[in-house]
Amino acid sequence: MARDEDARRASDALALALEEAGFDVGRAFPLLGATVGRAGVAVVEVGQVTPAVASQLADLVARAAGGGLAVGELGD
Known about the structure:
By secondary structure, the protein is mainly α. The protein is built from three helices and two strands, in the order ααββα. The radius of gyration is 14 Å and the shape is globular.
């Protein structure tokens, strides 16, 4: 299914981006992956993260935003 494949590609892209940013994805985001959600729609599951990982991710996003990067500028 195309949607399942889209979710898998997005999950892989997210994992690579997190690795490039310095996260140990296997430890910090152990549940990261593609799955089928409650409504039968393909989704990317990020899972539970520790407060330390959430703080690091928040800092990373805040720095990107402070540098002028915003979601609307990224495209699809």
